[in-house]
Amino acid sequence: MPEPKRTIGPHLLSALLALGLSFAAPAAYASDPLPSDAIAPPANVNIALFYNYFTDAGAFGSADNGGTYSQNTHISTDIVVARYIRTFNVAGLLSGVDVYEEYYGFVGNQRVGIGNIPSAAPGLLPSYGPGYGSFSAQSGLGQPNIGVFTFPINNAATGTYLVLHPWIAPPISSFNKNYALNPAQNTWTYEMEVGLYKTLIGTPATRNLSISLWGEAYLFSPNHSSAYVTPTIFANSIPPIYAFAHLLNPRIPASNPLAPSTVTPASFHEQPSEELRVYLPYEFYPATDAVIAPGLFQSFGGKQYYTLSNGVKVDSGNRTNETQLRLVVSSFVSPTINMTLEGEYDVANRGGPLERAVVVRLAKFF
Predict the structure, then answer these.
(1) Number of domains comprising the chain
(2) Domain that includes residue 105, residue range
(3) Global pTM value
(4) Is 102 part of any domain?
(5) Which residues of 10-21 are buried (b: 16+ CB within 10 A; e: fewer)?
(6) What is the pLDDT of residues 24-59, one digit of tens each?
(7) Residue 3 CB partners (closer than 8 Å, separation 6+)
(8) Are 269 and 225 in contact (CB under 8 A)?
(9) Alpha-carbon distance 338 to 41, whole Å?
């Protein structure tokens, strides 16, 4: 790894990297299905969808599952998504094509708090105290997502559906390896998605309680044109003794930033990951298909790491290991327009921000 313009000493540098502050860009996950997405729509229709997804995180989960830190943490995004679905019959099975594109906008300064920045000279100097890592971020287009789907089970009378939905996302986006946070990871992303919907109590024509289950599995290609980008490190209140220490050894920083951001060419890798969603939709007003649905989201795996030019592997600290509570409300506001509101609340997120999100989705059938 090339030396930065201002070094902070090997002990401090290794300690900061161990905090898992250099996490990768958001994964190019093709879909985030809602409860009713497993209900088969009519054949030979077009569906245009618009999403606005706002998320804000004031806390960050440690890479070792050792808790969270909230002071000086701010990761905020505003994502706009355009999606198109076309349905048709193939060999008697309802099928279709599904494509979407997103614009990923970072809002404000992106940074993660550090509870205690270690001493530059352990045993001789005190720690720098609390501070934060400031991430460079670039807004822009995410990777296009292209999918096909089919319903091997489509029983409207009993409210029972099964949908199979593979996706692919080519590495076409506004990715810039010089930024820590990007709209995408610039990797080929392959997803297999399976959704099951089953009415448990009542009938589809009356008030009813159902279950909606979703499972996804992802595979990722490497990104050999990536870079390992570290954050710029700041201390909130540097002890005065560091001014004297800096006079004796200029390599010991006595003012902010303690460490500037560095960009090291590298290959990016993400291991396979899985996701599970469980919703319990209650249809309380069948005339407009009005539904309220509590839900749970859980992801697994997805360790992310970089391989530097010298062959050294650096763990980013990020995983797709997230536990999230959800609440969805949906209804048709006209015979051809559906409106959905969703709230999301992260309970845990290993090596990533604990998000509080609001999603608005409009769907037009024609």
Answers:
(1) 1
(2) 10-365
(3) 0.88
(4) yes
(5) eebbebbbebbb
(6) 445 444 579 999 999 999 999 999 999 999 999 999
(7) none
(8) no
(9) 13
